[in-house]
Design a protein that fits this description.
The protein has 397 residues and is mainly beta. It has two domains: 1-45; 46-389, Neuraminidase. It has six helices and 28 strands. The protein has helices spanning 13-21, 25-31, 36-41, 154-161, 250-253, 346-354, and strands at 51-54, 63-67, 76-80, 90-95, 98-102, 108-111, 118-121, 130-133, 138-142, 149-153, 162-167, 177-182, 185-191, 198-200, 206-210, 213-218, 222-227, 234-239, 259-266, 272-281, 288-298, 306-309, 315-319, 325-328, 339-342, 363-366, 371-374, 387-389. The chain has a five-stranded mixed sheet with strand order 24-23-25-26-27, with no helix packed on it. The chain is globular and about 65 Å long. InterPro entries: F-box_dom, KIB1-4_b-propeller. Residues 8-42 form the F-box domain. It comes from Zingiber officinale (Ginger). This is DUF295 domain-containing protein.
Length: 397
């Protein structure tokens, strides 16, 4: 009843402070977002480093976070419940404090896992050659000429076709733009006010959003910038395929890889990087894992356009399903300099689960020592793969 309502903002500050100090870290973050008086009751929250958002283990789980530290064995995980249930969701992308999630029906949205702010995007369905069979628990997928058909369960089909969702910084319901990389389908985009995804007919290896533009890695080393702010996409070639070349280092050539993932990343000063990730099978051919990395920086004055980078100095690089980024360790205690922090891919994690290998391919690569250290996870099987994000309590009005 309305007469029974209480104004919780009028609680004494010392009482609020005592209550807030008993909360775990993520709950303290949300505590400060309730109102001005609750915010003033606790000191400002300092986010020490990026977090990993882990998949929900059970249907009643909501959010599981893993915070990094310099001590691999003492990294802590904690659960958090104010957000919509995430069990069965695919983490398809992240940018800053926002994460793109996709459910089994290909419904897509952007979510801030700490504030529960959510922006709904158009569904990826219908997809040409994909026929939903809800009574059978999956989709019937036809090849290009419809000569053959294959049945995939809902989760398998979604995780196969949706490779990565990249979106603009600080999105709001009235102002957001997103692009998606899809297996066997052209990349597509949508933005506020659109009711569907619009295809762009060209191959894509990676996409990154930076300073109002989407940068697309095409083929081996060609980079194209897209401005989607107007009525029609505006394309500008940054690096032409025919005028660029990648000279692989001897250490990278010596690796017997079976697959390469490529990522674009920008530094805080606007420098463009290309990261090549070498994936191999172990000696017994049963485990798919990362063996090493090679980093290249765009140099417009170089004959090849790309120069190898062997040292990131006081920076760390974060790659995976996220909008890749470089961070200075000076602003994030616990990070190690000159390292690449990486998470598993759908291809790698699916391969390992099929072959009965549970331990995930998640860790850091020390550029100086060319050595990989795997991260200790709170549990073994991680599907979908976890995703990096930068915790923040900012939300739209």
């Amino acid at each position: 009843m309305e007469d029974d309502a209480h104004d919780w903002s009028l609680l004494p500050l010392d009482l609020l402070r005592k209550l807030g100090e008993k909360l775990h870290f993520p709950h303290r973050v949300v505590f400060r977002t309730v109102c001005k008086s609750w915010c003033s009751a606790l000191p400002s929250i300092v986010f020490p480093y990026p977090w990993l958002l882990l998949p929900a283990e059970q249907i009643d789980d909501s959010c599981t976070f893993l915070s990094l530290s310099s001590d691999n064995e003492h990294r802590s995980s904690f659960k958090f419940s104010p957000v919509p249930p995430l069990y069965g969701m695919c983490y398809a992308g992240s940018n800053g404090s926002w994460v793109a999630i996709v459910d089994l029906a290909f419904n897509t949205s952007l979510l801030n896992p700490l504030t529960a702010a959510q922006i709904h995007l158009p569904s990826f369905l219908p997809l040409p050659r994909v026929e939903p069979l809800p009574n059978c628990g999956g989709y019937l997928c036809h090849n290009t000429d419809h000569s053959n058909s294959y049945f995939f369960e809902f989760e398998t089909c979604r995780d196969y076709f949706i490779k990565k969702v990249v979106f603009s910084s600080n999105p709001t319901p009235q102002n957001h733009t997103a692009m998606v990389i899809r297996h066997e389908y052209p990349t597509a985009y949508t933005k506020a006010g659109m009711s569907k995804w619009t295809s762009l007919d060209f191959p894509v290896l990676d996409i990154i959003y930076h300073d109002g533009l989407f940068y697309i890695l095409r083929c081996v080393s060609e980079v194209v910038a897209f401005d989607l702010s107007g009525d029609n996409p505006v394309k500008r070639v940054i690096i032409d395929l025919f005028n660029s070349d990648i000279e692989l280092s001897d250490s990278f050539l010596s690796r017997s890889y079976v697959h390469q993932d490529k990522y674009l990343a920008f530094s805080s000063t606007g420098e463009l990087f290309l990261i090549m990730r070498c994936n191999i099978y172990t000696d017994d051919s049963t485990k798919f894992e990362t063996e090493g990395f090679m980093i290249l920086k765009y140099n417009c004055e170089s004959s090849s356009c790309w120069d190898e980078v062997r040292c990131l100095e006081n920076q760390s690089l974060f790659i995976g399903m996220n909008n890749a980024y470089l961070l200075s360790i000076e602003g994030f205690s616990g990070l190690r300099a000159n390292c690449i922090y990486f998470t598993d891919t759908f291809e790698g994690i699916n391969c390992n689960i099929v072959t009965g290998r549970a331990n995930p391919d998640i860790g850091l690569f020390d550029l100086e020592q060319e050595k990989i250290e795997l991260c200790c996870m709170p549990y073994d099987k991680l599907l979908p793969p976890p995703i990096w994000f930068l915790p923040s309590i900012e939300s739209y009005e």
